[in-house]
Design goal:
2 copies of one chain form a homodimer.
Chain A (H helix, E strand, L loop, with lengths): L3 H11 L2 H10 L4 E2 H8 L3 H13 L3 E6 L2 E6 L5 H7 L6 H5 L11
Antiparallel strand pairs in A: 1-3, 2-3
Chain A binds a DNA duplex through α4.
DNA sequence: TTATTATATAATTATTCGATTATATAGATA
DNA sequence: TATCTATATAATCGAATAATTATATAATAA
């Protein structure tokens, strides 16, 4: 059983188009900031600030690899989120279309 | 499958302590505005405005009975909400403690 | 009719929030 | 070393939001 206040905090985090998209994308594979920038068509600082909120809320964790920072899902302790994600469309195509993979970005 | 935008709209609605509490309370039984005011310890206009948002978002529907307006859940078409509510504590005790039921309120 | 009760609406205020812009940091490379 | 790249942080701005206060509406009761 989850306290209402804790649930509300998490729902506020996922109740944003950019952050919810980030979490769905991370279901496909770990991604770095520049990849989110490309897929979500927004600025690097915008992504960085959303990632900080998600990290503070315990929804993602980060791993530094050289100059890149890879983010991964940390929602194992929040099965209600996994339930929720099942109702939302796969972002597989978006991750596969990344042009980063063809260039010298993030490797 | 639900569009991300639609999901975000609904998550914004439930990502508020007062509104999420209202929805959980409505799982027990239909309630009128004055009962929410008593249970949630807030003002009547505050409840009314939250109810309007929930109604606009299609999460509740209203039934007028004399001078009272009873609200009920309208989440049959949103199973992901029913899933979510399962993780949250029952509000049965709060509804049962209503002093309204002993007085001339809401009958 | 007038008064009372339940609810809704409008106006206001304070706060929060998402995005942008500018700047800083830290690692990689020349 | 100096420079370039990826990311983070800080500052600012405007929009959205929750709550309060005041007022309106609508049904009931006296």
């Amino acid at each position: 059983m989850i306290e209402i206040e804790n649930m509300v905090d998490t729902l506020k985090l996922v109740g944003d188009k950019c952050r919810l998209s980030i979490l769905l994308l991370l279901q496909e594979r770990d991604l770095c900031v520049c990849e989110f920038v490309e897929i979500l068509q927004t600025s690097q600082p915008n992504i960085s600030q959303h990632m900080r909120k998600l990290k503070d809320g315990g929804l993602v964790k980060e791993t530094k690899k050289g100059q890149w920072v890879y983010y991964s899902l940390a929602t194992q302790d929040k099965p209600f989120l996994t339930d929720l994600f099942k109702y939302l469309p796969s972002q597989k195509d978006k991750v596969e279309k990344l042009t980063c993979e063809d260039s010298n970005c993030c490797d």
